[in-house]
């Protein structure tokens, strides 16, 4: 009887926590739309959104209407979906590789996606038939395959996979730098450099129509494999003994992480630490079960990225800081804490 009451109490606590997180995300998006070089009241923001969605006829300044709908709201939605996607990628990779340091940035997937996107952007490879997102996806897959080949040759332990990912990341970063240095003019080089550091400045509604569906589809696919992710915590042999089709699930989940990473990189550049920090924070709050961990991580990643976007716009007056710099400022100390905790647990 007490066990049932305890389970019911935990379930209601989880529901309350989820509702609070959704409300917090909505508040953060409202602040992201209101805050900027031109301060716009929340009431004006609500009226501008209502005019476009519900067809109301509130009288507003056309400049304010355009800023809210065409620039800031789309930017906030892309930030939220990108943060959710990167955080989910971190959860999946950490479970599959059984390593607390695994994430797309560390494993070189982000660097490969950046190289693929730059090849389309600067060199024009496949231009017309291949979009920026397609180039980023191909780069992410190539990077993942390279890291897999290196890991197979060096041993399949999680530590060696991380080291192979770091090596692959350096390789693709070097390729990106070489392409920019040798093939881009000064204006292109400045734009690519700012974009590679993580930039939300160029996102518009077409990016929302890509990023939001990718994040939702990726979340549902990961949630469908939540039981398999729990099983991988005990190793591939244990997962196979529990009836998990190990190879098929690995291919599907690694493909999902590559797709989500490529979509994010193609829109906002390479952003690190989100997939590393947020899963650990969510795991601390809701526990290791992926049925609870996946939604908590997605919401946490969305909130964190919107918050980072707000900070990037207000930390330096009259200047926008690359969002990747902001996530690194928060993520690097958290990365150090994770390393020390992992060392104590050995």
From TrEMBL:
UniProt xrefs under InterPro entries: ABC_BtuC-like, ABC_transptr_permease_BtuC
Pfam families for the chain: FecCD
Entry keywords, A to Z: Cell membrane, Membrane, Plasmid, Transmembrane, Transmembrane helix, Transport
TM annotation in the entry: 12-35, 76-93, 105-130, 136-154, 161-180, 192-221, 252-281, 293-315, 321-340
Main location: membrane
Protein localization: Cell membrane
Membrane topology qualifier: Multi-pass membrane protein
Coiled-coil blocks: none
Family as reported in the entry's similarity comment: Belongs to the binding-protein-dependent transport system permease family. FecCD subfamily.
Protein name, per record: Iron ABC transporter permease
């Amino acid at each position: 009887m007490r066990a049932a009451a305890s389970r019911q109490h935990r379930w209601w606590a989880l529901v309350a926590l989820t509702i609070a997180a959704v409300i917090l995300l909505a508040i953060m998006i409202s602040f992201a739309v209101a805050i900027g070089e031109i301060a716009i009241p929340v009431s004006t923001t609500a009226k501008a959104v209502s005019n476009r969605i519900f067809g109301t006829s509130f009288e507003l300044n056309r400049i304010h209407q355009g800023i809210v709908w065409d620039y800031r709201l789309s930017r906030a939605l892309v930030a939220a979906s990108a943060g959710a996607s990167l955080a989910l990628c971190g959860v999946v990779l950490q479970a599959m590789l059984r390593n607390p340091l695994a994430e797309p940035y560390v494993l070189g997937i982000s660097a490969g996606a950046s190289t693929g996107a730059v090849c389309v952007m600067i060199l024009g490879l496949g231009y017309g038939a291949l979009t920026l997102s397609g180039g980023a996806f191909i780069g992410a897959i190539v990077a993942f395959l390279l890291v897999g080949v290196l890991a197979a040759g060096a041993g399949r332990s999680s530590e060696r996979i991380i080291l192979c990912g770091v090596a692959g990341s350096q390789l693709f970063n070097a390729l990106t730098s070489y392409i920019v240095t040798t093939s881009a003019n000064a204006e292109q080089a400045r734009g690519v450099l700012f974009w590679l550091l993580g930039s939300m400045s160029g996102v518009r509604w077409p990016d929302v129509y890509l990023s939001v569906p990718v994040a939702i589809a990726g979340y549902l696919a990961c949630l469908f494999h939540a039981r398999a992710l729990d099983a991988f915590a005990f190793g591939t042999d244990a997962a196979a003994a529990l009836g998990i089709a190990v190879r098929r699930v690995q291919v599907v989940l690694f493909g999902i992480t590559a797709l989500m990473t490529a979509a994010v990189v193609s829109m906002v550049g390479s952003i690190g630490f989100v997939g590393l920090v947020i899963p650990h924070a969510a795991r601390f709050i809701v526990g290791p079960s992926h049925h609870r961990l996946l939604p908590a991580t997605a919401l946490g990643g969305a909130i964190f990225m919107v918050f980072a976007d707000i900070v990037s716009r207000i930390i330096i007056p009259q200047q926008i800081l690359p969002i990747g710099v902001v996530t690194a400022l928060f993520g690097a100390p958290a990365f150090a804490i994770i390393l020390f905790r992992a060392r104590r647990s050995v």
